[in-house]
Amino acid sequence: MRMWSWMAWNGAGTPVANLPASDRRRGLRTRAAVLTAGTAMVLSVATPAVAERDEAAMALPSANMEAVLKAAQIDPRRADTALTPGSKASVSLVEEALTAKGLLDGKYVDGHFGTATISGYAAYQRSLGYTGIDASGLPGPASLRKLGSQRYTVTNLVSAGSRITYHGATMNTRTKAMLVAAEGLLGRQLSVTQGSYNPGGVGGSAGTHDGGGALDLSVRGMSTSTRTDVVRKLRNVGFAAWLRTPAQGNWAYHIHAIAVNDPDQSSAAQHQAGDYYLGYNGLASRARDDGPQVTKVTWEEYRRG
Ligand SMILES: [Zn+2]
Q: Considering the chain, what percentage of its residues have pLDDT values greater than 70?
């Protein structure tokens, strides 16, 4: 597992082999730009235009995709316009770009990724031809980079990966890696009763499983303390996870989990991830979180330790 971690992934959490050719070339281009800039300094009298152009390209600000995703889940669920720590600068870049395209009123450029910014970003995604969960207002890697063209570069790219089957259920490779990590911490295999990308599959799920990052897990045969420990370990690796009880809805005991910062989340799943950070239980009642308290992290933060 660890070999896979450092061999197949770059620092930004994106499998290098999966990047489009243009991105793989970017590293080369960047090195070329540095060499050109170095040469230009030596020959500054002869080629000032080259030096200025390269300096401008290298001076683009960067938007951290992890920070943008976190704010886009949490901020729309806040009662006020408070900021998500670490997200203001990156979110502001996104908001400025939306405003430049006429998709967001300038008064909302404040670093708070609230409902107006979600609506503006969804409009941008639709303008690119995206529909359904791809136009939910939660930035994906492709739209975020396209929006930033000539304005900002994107760091800490988060990719949901491809859709695969694990434990008999559909999920993306990021969610599977998270589940495998939780199983490793627990020292046991878990049983998946509902996976992701299952629109309308289970009525009681209220759309939370329509997109990526969603799992339901069986608690059959588990003691109360074991159930709590499973929820805790899921939270430890980056899931917003709760034990659901028959008293809460039309369902049997199970664990419901949403992978925080999964760019494929449905809108309902985004709300649950945001509510998890804000201390709620992720249900329509918005009651207090009744699960084990942990330091809340994303999968990427967990992997960095
Ligand atoms: Zn569920």
A: 81
Distance from the CA of 2 to the center of ligand 1, in angstroms?
Answer: 29
Q: What is the pLDDT of residues 35-64, one digit of tens each?
A: 344 444 433 444 445 555 555 556 899 999
How far apart CA 92 and CA 68 sit, in angstroms, is 9
Dist. CA 113 → ligand 1 center (Å): 26
Write out the H or E segment, with its range, that includes residue 274.
helix 267-277
Give the pLDDT of residue 216: 98
Dist. CA 214 → ligand 1 center (Å): 7
Q: What fold does the segment set 163-304 form as a domain? A: Muramoyl-pentapeptide Carboxypeptidase; domain 2 (3.30.1380)
Instruction: Yes or no: say if 242 and 267 are a contact pair by the CB < 8 Å rule.
Output: no
Q: How far is the CA of 205 from the centre of ligand 1 (A)?
A: 5
CA of 225 to the centre of ligand 1 (A): 21
Q: Which residues contact 24 (CB under 8 A, 6 or more apart)?
A: 16
Look at residues 69, 66, 41 and name the one whose alpha carbon lies nearest to residue 55. 41
Q: Is the dihedral of CA 48, 53, 58, 60 positive or negative?
A: positive
| pLDDT number for residue 55 | 56
Instruction: Give the Å distance between the CA of 167 and the centre of ligand 1.
Output: 16
Domain boundary assignment for the chain: 2-155, 163-304
240 Rama sector, left if φ>0, alpha if ψ -120 to 50, beta otherwise: beta
pTM of the model: 0.82
Calculate how far, in angstroms, residue 169's C-alpha sits from the geometric centre of ligand 1: 13
User: Residue 106 pLDDT more than 80?
Assistant: yes
The CA distance from 293 to 168, in Å, is: 30
CA distance 296 to 305: 12
